[in-house]
Design a protein that fits this description.
It comes from Methanocaldococcus vulcanius (strain ATCC 700851 / DSM 12094 / M7) (Methanococcus vulcanius). The protein is mainly alpha-helical. The protein contains 10 helices and no strands. The chain has one domain (about 5-155, about 180-190). The longest helix has about 45 residues, at about 60-105.
């Protein structure tokens, strides 16, 4: 159970007033550690997928079909881990934003923003603060972003059609014909990560 969930149960309302900077910093470190571990696991699966793909170059159809099933299993495992990663990423963003808000608590109280934050439903606050980045922002820009979190919006999620085996055979054919190299072919099989997630991953790797 996350720090936020524990605090909600303890205080039965928006617990932002009760959370300390120290608690939030500890939660941020805990989430960062989990994210780093997941990144390593995802990279390990990616390397294994590349290895299996290379084994299929020049192999007969039966061997390729066997390898395709193994690669599809790895792809499914990677998708599950990536889904977990994106969930943790949102939690990390939320906690980091809470930490920034707590550090500016006095200033936010002076301009009336704190009252809005402390009175919003905790579930709604978590939803809104998971979708914005306050880190690295000047105070005025941070206030502007906080004002925006009180505006409701709808997100549309598009489903993906799984055509893993078809894509694998196409990729093998491209490599065997000399059209692309192995790295390019394997890269084309990666999950469709959103650009903002890729940017966030790069940022995490630098920290």
């Amino acid at each position: 159970m996350s720090l936020w969930e524990r605090a909600k149960k303890m205080f039965m309302k928006n617990p932002i007033e009760k959370l300390s900077i120290r608690d939030l910093e500890g939660e941020k470190i805990r989430l960062k550690s989990k994210l780093d571990r997941l990144k390593k696991e995802i990279n390990k699966i990616e390397k294994k997928k590349k290895q299996l793909f290379q084994e299929g170059i020049g192999a007969d159809k039966l061997k390729k079909k066997i390898l395709a099933q193994e690669i599809k299993a790895l792809e499914m495992e990677m998708k599950l881990k990536y889904k977990n990663f994106t969930t943790l990423q949102k939690q990390y963003t939320f906690v980091n934003n809470l930490l920034i808000i707590k550090k500016y608590e006095k200033e936010l109280k002076n301009i009336g923003i704190w009252n809005k934050i402390s009175n919003i439903e905790p579930e709604l606050l978590e939803l809104k603060l998971s979708d914005i980045i306050l880190d690295g922002k000047e105070f005025d820009e941070m206030v502007s972003n906080l004002n925006k979190v009180f505006e409701m919006r709808l997100d549309e999620v598009e489903g993906e059609e799984d055509e893993a085996e078809k894509k694998l055979f196409e990729a093998w054919g491209q490599v065997e014909s000399g059209g692309v190299d192995v790295d390019s072919a394997v890269d084309s099989l990666k999950l469709d990560e959103e650009e903002e997630d890729e940017d966030w991953l790069k940022k995490m790797e630098k920290e």
